[in-house]
Amino acid sequence: MTCLLGIDIGTTSTIGILIRPPDRVLGIVSRPVRLSSPQPGWTEEDPGQWWSNVGDICRELLATAALDPHEIAGIGVTGMLPAVVLLDDGGNLLRPSIQQSDGRCGEQVAEIRAEQDEKAFIARSGNGINQQLVGAKIRWLERHEPQVYQRIATVFGSYDYINWKLTGEKAVEQNWALEAGFVNIATHELDDGQIALAHLPRRTVPRLVRSHDILGVVTPDAARWTGLAAGTPVIGGAADMIASALGAGVTRPGDALLKFGGSVDVLTAAADVYPDARLYLDYHLIPGLYMPNGCMSTGGSGLNWFAENFAGQHRAAAEEAGMSLHQYLDSLAQQKPPGADGVLCLPYFLGEKTPLHDPAARGVLFGLTLSHDAGHVWRALLEAYAYAIKHHVETLHDIGYPTRRYIVSDGGSASRLWMQIVADVLGAPLQRLTGHPGSCLGAAWAAAIGTGQSDDWNGAGAFVRFGELIQPDAGNHSCYGELYPRFRELYAQCKPLTGGGCK
């Protein structure tokens, strides 16, 4: 009986899962990851720590499951994108990775925008000119770290790096390359002209592979480090949010996933491509489908920030009630009416990605009076992220992508109040999931497809169960319909005022 291994190179943790089709999870193991911000707006990590974690995770999974490593038929690696990992010609790391949330390259984005016809660029690349582009980050290095830039021999992503460590094969998976700005969406091939915008020689970007294509096999050196069997097939890998969506059952055009993690992601399956600068475009794991999507800069991280910095006085009461601080704040917010008695929030605490693409956007609490308390503010925060989801959904519809079914996942979806607010704002039911382990499951199932263990992309759904279907409240939906335009107008009014403090 064969097993599949999925590994997720996440921003805050590395996670591994062992599954045995059709529906058994044999084990899940994680290790933390250190995220560094050496300067404001910078986010970096050590790829060496990812590889160290992979070794620990694989050995523990094999030991816990008492599994012969030869039973593993294939390995899939997923990760955040488009993180940037750089090697010299000896295969040595040149510097820490530059993460997808890094905001240092605003000037270089402006340079590329000034050089390019943006409409033509979007039509060719499928994505707009923004801080996701790897080319902008490389140009930043050219200007600020020339000693690194001059030694670049390989540029690829987080899971591409782990695949190379496992197999000795260098390649870039199609979604890393697409969001990097290196793929021509018409030909589905690497585009020399787009790579040249990064001021990189073409040879620095490895060959392109599809997610479920077999990239190579585990080398003897990697086998010794991980405990895996040498010769085990490794597939091209997957973007984390795309792998997560597959595991959640987003497999038909119109299916949508709302992911409530440290940030909030909005993804939908689509049969057609309508490139638009407001959102990101990725390939679905299922060949022939696409996944237009948006990602907010914050989500759970914004809630954590408020809870840790402004709600500590409620911690003792939460413990006495047998609740987490977040649950206790939910209970306070539950007592407040829709609209939080006039408190309105903009949740742009790290600027905002889609659909605004405004790194200068800032968080705002508007309408506060002495009659308001933590429950009002907490509800306003939950409502703000719901409004931002509605903004994404409206953008999808405006572009031409329908959304017919909403599935919710990740840690924030455990908040019954938050999910009810989102359902009320959208005026649509939300399907909760139970037992979804995240992106590692989608990566493992892609390995099952790539190695011929299954030909059913929907098979990943056997490992996940549907929970409650949350129905919208018609009265609350009407109220939020009046408040949502105010949310949009508040951003428009505040935008000219942002830009920093005193010099």
Helix and strand topology:
Layout: E1 3-9, E2 13-20, E3 24-32, E4 44-45, H1 47-64, E5 72-79, E6 85-87, E7 97-98, H2 106-115, H3 118-125, H4 134-144, H5 146-149, E8 154-156, H6 158-167, E9 171-173, H7 174-180, E10 183-184, E11 189-190, H8 192-196, E12 207-209, E13 214-217, H9 220-226, E14 233-235, E15 238-239, H10 240-248, E16 255-260, E17 264-268, E18 280-283, E19 290-295, H11 300-310, H12 315-320, H13 325-334, E20 344-346, E21 364-366, H14 374-399, E22 405-409, H15 416-426, E23 430-434, H16 439-450, E24 465-470, H17 474-494
Parallel strand pairs: 1-5, 5-15, 9-12, 16-22, 22-23
Antiparallel strand pairs: 1-2, 2-3, 4-7, 6-8, 10-11, 13-14, 16-17, 17-19, 18-19, 20-21, 23-24
Helix pairs in contact: 1-6, 2-4, 10-16, 11-14, 13-14, 14-15, 15-17
Give a short summary of the structure.
The chain has 503 residues and is α+β, with helices and mostly antiparallel strands. It is 37% helix and 21% strand.
CATH C-level of the largest domain: Alpha Beta
Q: From the 3D structure, determine the CATH topology of the largest domain.
A: Nucleotidyltransferase, domain 5
Distance between the termini: 65 Å
Q: What's the CATH H-level homologous superfamily of the largest domain?
A: ATPase, nucleotide binding domain
Mean of all residue-level pLDDT scores:
95
* Cα-atom radius of gyration: 22 Å
Structural class comes to alpha+beta
Largest sheet: 7 strands, mixed
Q: Please, how many helices?
A: 17
User: Could you say which overall geometry the principal axes of the C-alpha atoms support?
Assistant: globular
- Helix percentage: 25-40%
Strand order of the largest sheet: 18-19-17-16-22-23-24
Beta-strand portion reads 15-25%
| Number of domains as seen in the coordinates | 2
CATH architecture assignment name of the largest domain: 2-Layer Sandwich
Uncertain ranges: none
Counted beta strands? 24
Domain Carbohydrate kinase FGGY C-terminal: 285-449
Domain Carbohydrate kinase FGGY N-terminal: 4-247
GO biological process, one term: carbohydrate metabolic process
Protein name: Xylulokinase
